[in-house]
Amino acid sequence: MLRVDDVHAVKLIMEAANVQYVPGLHHCIADYDSHDCLRGGVILADYWGGSVMMHIAGFRPNWASKALLWAGFDYPFNHLKVKKIFGLVPEYNWRARNLDLHLGFRIECLLSDVFNHQDAPNGMYIMSMTRDECKWLSMPMPKIEFADQRCPIPPLAVMQVAGSA
Q: I need a labelling partner for 91 at 20 to 30 A (CA). Which of 114, 128, 131, 165 fits?
């Protein structure tokens, strides 16, 4: 079951992805199982008109449902009309890097000396996906159950371009 901007999901995904969340400016799409346990989700942040940053976190095995994958990529590409989704992945977080590669993101570059770890790599990957590279847009829309029928995905289009008021 998908939930949009759910406070519980925002807090957990924010902590897992080590990012900040600004209500009204950033948005979260989260997937819960039938026992009301958070499976995983995405936070969309830093919308610049042509691009948006995606932060991803999963909390259970096989957490990425078809509904979450479809909504997580349909919303930025088809509703926000971005050309590119990008993300930042610490070099030491090989699981996140591999997940992003599996989802279809590609590594644009590796920045060095971003962190100051004594016992881990200190780089940061900038990863991206364009609309043409997104394999999830060709999948048929799955059955999506929303926790709150008054708030389906399309009304999230209130997301503002960074720097505008």
A: 131
